Amino acid sequence: MMSGLALLVGLPALVRADAPVRATAARALAPSREASFWTEIVDRIEIARAMTGRIDHHLAEGWRNARVEPAAAADDAEFLRRLYLDLAGRVPSVAEVRRFLDDKRSDKRERLIDDLLDGPRYPAHFSRVWRALWLPEAAASIQGTLLAPGFESWLRKHLAGNTSYAAVVRELLTTPISSGRPQQAIEESLTGKATPIGFYLAKEAKAENLAAGTSRLFLGVKLECAQCHNHPFADWTREQFWGLAAFFAGIEGKTQNEFTIPSPEKLDRRSIKLPNSETVIEASFLDGTRPKWQERVSSRVTLAEWVTAADNPYFARATVNRVWAYFFGNALVEPVDEMIGGEIKTHHPELLNDLARQFAASGFDLKQLMRAIVRSRAYQLTSSGKPATNEVGLFARMPLRGLTAEQLYDSVAQATGYNEPASTIPISFVPGAKPSLRAEFMTRFANASEKSTDFHTSILHALALMNGKLISQATDLERSETLAAVANAPFMDTAERVEVLYLATLSRRPRADELERMSRHVEGAAAGQAGTAATERYNRALADVFWVLLNSGEFMLNH
Amino acid sequence: MKTRIACPVLLALLAAWSLAAAQGPGDSAPPGAAPEVKPGPHDVVFLSRTGPVVIRFDVRADGKPLETAWNEFIDYLFKYADKNGDGVLSREEVEAAPDPSTFNNNIFFFGGGFAGATMGGVKMDANGDGKVTKEEYADYIRKSGLPPFTLHAGPERQQGPGMMRNPFQQGKPATADLNKALMKLLDRNGDGKLSRAELAAAPEAFRKLDLDEDEVITHQEMLPGFTPLNILFGAVAYSTGPQQKQPPDNTPVFLASSAQSSRDLARRLLTRYGGGKNKKTLTRADLGLDEQTFARLDRDGNGELDAEELARLLPRAPDVTVVIRLGEHDLKEPSIELAGSKVPAGIKVRTANDTIILSLDGERLAIRVGASKSRSQMSFFLRQIVTAQFQQADRDNNGYIDEKEARMSGFGRIFKTLDREGSGKVYEKDVLAYLETIEGFQTRATASCVSLHFVDSGRGLWDLMDTDRDGRLSLREIKALPQLVDELDRDGDGAISLAEIPHGYLLRVEQGAGNSGGPDPFSALEQLGVNAGPAPPLGKGPVWFQRMDRNRDGDVSRAEFLGSEALFRRIDTDGDGLISLEEAIRFEESLRKGKQKR
Fold first, then answer.
1. Which of A34, B204, B389, B392 places its Cα 20 to 30 Å from the Cα of A503?
2. What is the C-alpha separation between A317 and A165, in angstroms, rounded?
3. CB of B381 less than 8 A from some CB of A
4. CA–CA distance from A68 to each of A63, A382, A547 (Å)?
5. CB contact (8 A) between residue A485 and residue B533
6. Ramachandran angles phi, psi of B51, nearest 5°
7. Chain A to chain B, count of Cβ pairs less than 8 Å apart?
8. B369 with B326: CB under 8 angstroms?
9. Tens digits of per-residue pLDDT, B287-300?
10. Residues of A with CB below 8 A from B551's CB?
11. Could you tell me if B572 lies within 8 Å of chain A, comparing CB atoms?
């Protein structure tokens, strides 16, 4: 195991030395609006290809050194389902599965990756993923609940436009704070207006909360332990924690009845007093460098410039590490919030540095990073088979991952056709309003924040599903769109109906033995009956098949 | 529960809103909202740029002529009010009669709708003889905002003292903003025009905006950050200053029967065709009239029509007759169609997506039947609120409210109506039973009255694309965009520019007299997804078709279809990438015939 700090040596120099990978082929096109559009696309694909090359290279070397045989490649259906869950946050529709499985083109996987990243579902899904990470308070307080829609809207806008990740973080860290904004922000948020103000209000406009959140989320550094006093073996001192908090010292607020009302920001405040002490700590960066202040410019602007600079020693690594963990269940440096000091586990340090360097060089292009990861050989390995004991950290097999509450809900909704309009109004503010099934489901799992490779929460999800309204409605012939459509389609025989239920839930065609068994169950139920009784029994048996598939481990997990 | 903190805020807003709404149509309805209508076909005058066009509406409700349906509704209402069945309403019966404004309004109860002999200045007992006959009652209902046929086309209400900025006002984005966003999205070469190829590429361009992947684009998806509603905090501004005088109604559409004042008809014509010069007379060219009609009107033969002569323009034979079928009717008969094939020169008529479009020089009037509204979800919501109000009113907590408690709450004015047995006690069950009765009246009122809603949408691209005018762009509408070039490309360059877009107007025909009390908070909340629940199937066509049509746009797209691609192609006989209702029915019939043959 290596110290995370040691891995940082030389990274800034590498960033400067390496010019971005550029494609030249499309430059020959005339500089029209369309030509520049295509040039950009080709450039991005080339950069992603280069990044994928680095991933494959480093991991193959790891497998060789460890004498581990990587798992076989995932088949098309396994890959398709995994990619949809990861990029779109739901299983693919029946039509999407059919189209992909029947596609004979050799580059269909790359095409699907591009299609999903450029489609509407990517910003919709990842705005929730990032919001859950950056604004976890949304589930815990009224104010957080009210501010979440606007915050997601703000993220969605940037994700849809593929704004540089650095620019998004910069905007978050420098968004203006004024006393009139909370009420306006809540009104705007409820009606879907994009605003990142929730980050500050949910953290009670307190410098220490904002500093802790900033360092954990954007630098992969957990400073909270140093907030109260110095620990003998800790990597961070109390002065370092409050030195970072001092950048937020201009922000103050009062919290009443769970609502935070900030005062107008004091732009020139560059230091902070330690709690219960007369000691004043000057703002300083985590790497010990002193800020260069600009007159009448908020300290937060100076901090944001340092955090998001291409040569910041933490920012790119922390982001790559977090994104990697999202797709593989395990990070390159564990834990993701605490990449330096303590009991960290590091896998493929050179790969993390390499990717961080290329990520910075790409202008912090999140889509490129994701594209590179999902195109890699490791991402496209199967999860089936028994892992070897020394495989941990080698990424030689895709681990089984639990679904988040949202992935599970959206997948059930997709599979069954349950289509409930989403409300931006928290229903508890409307007398007599019924919570939507989605809201009910999310509330139950609001605080689930475990690693996706641990299934504890997923098992709870599964239990909730099996006993919950969602599944009972979804497998009710009257209420389930998919089931009702399939049962009443005169152009389908039993085998075709069973196939549709497999495509809808498990995103694959049934194997011959499964098809035979399920068809027998359905047709057998109606045997010896006639007329309405036969139809009723037949349909009930079809609903049984659907219920079994929706509650199977294969549906509940990302594999 | 701490999350209940703000409930009173919303309740107060709803109550405040309803008090304003309960002023009644006589106080607040815009001019033309509740005109007196004589039985018979209903003529609407459209003052097009090139001259007046008379459109006759031949309306059938549940397969009956509209007047028959309306008279049956009056019979039902009168029977309910006439408790002793003596054929006339006594003073007590009049006082306990339900308030007609609650039949015409999705808001109910807040602040107390009231029964009574006078409504918005209209007396039930018109001749003052102490009893109300069925004829008097019918006239009272007609004048209380429930005539069989109504046009909502008044001028925009002005904000100001005495007005309420309604917290549930539903907004629509500005035409200019939509035009700008649509051009940015579709005009790929940035030349300020939309070519056939650019419009053909629209499905892919719109797909990127479709955040919920339902293959339907909403205003919010088109304009992220657009706020469709004025809601909650700080949304109400209400003061009690004097009412501002309303401007004269100059909308270019009105009921022929509403122009009973000859002076008003002449004023409208002079305003519209006088070229803004405050003219006192109009020539034949100004009005675009044929020689014969002009000669008939020009009594003094001076070649110009003055106010007196202009007033005789009506009645005149219709230029276009539109048949409307609402409620229950044979699905093989369209809900809207043109009667006869003759239309005057200068007017082009086409029918698309259940819409009749009249194209005139630089103008385009679309007439369509609006979607029927379901109250099933909101019914639950309403019961919760009414129950809460009852519990609040029952101050001594003895399970009923007496007259004193009623007076101190919003139930005061309907106490007699609620207390049908005259026991002096009103229980929660009485309130809920009355709510059910009112809902029954609402259902009948909706089925027996028809309203036309006029919308001036300016030179808007969105409205041109949104042919069914439901505020959303469906896949079928998006796929049909290249046809706009055929229709609108006046300079023949194979593309349409904003200058070529005609001025658009819409006449939406709906069941019910329309919501004369203002915006409807329930539909507003429903629009925001509160209590909305999944949309029910459209109820037309084979079950598989209805269930596969997940976005309820009336078509099954490739993405929605659950069968194979080969099967999709077999059913989609016109190859437009959408299975229509007709294609689904035809396919199912062919399967049935195939089985029969075997």
1. B204
2. 13
3. yes
4. 5, 15, 39
5. no
6. 145, 165
7. 171
8. yes
9. 988 888 899 899 99
10. 419
11. no
